[in-house]
Design a protein that fits this description.
152 residues, alpha+beta, 4-stranded antiparallel sheet, elongated
Amino acid sequence: CLSLCFSGDGMTFVSGCFVSTVRLWDTDGTPISEPFVGHTSSVYSVAFSPDGQTIVSGSGDNTVRLWDTEGNPIGEPFTGHTSGVYSVAFSPDGQTIASGSFDDTVRLWPIWLSDGWIPRTCNHLRGYLLAGRKSDDVIRQAHRTCARYVWK
């Protein structure tokens, strides 16, 4: 495996491996989950959220993914890096993920991007913007946010 991280309570740790998987382990080295499947390349970095309920992983497939501790993916993968993601970390408040990539960039990802309501709202906003009401400052700011995080 390429990356290991202990949970905050020290009772489990998570691994990221060459075989494109993430896995939870007991401190005696016994796997306590099936491998988390979703990445399409080696998993280079893993980390626990401060509350220990979420895991983030970075991969050679250029994506960052969130998982619950049962191995279920949370939302869609974060995309934007143009090369493998070699480092991931949660902010102390658990609201932001930082990722570092071989593309020489660091990206910050607000955790709320993972739950799906932002893309739905942005796609609704796109239709609203096309209707011609672009002068409102709030709408312009929303448009910038959607263009940065959702529409790419």
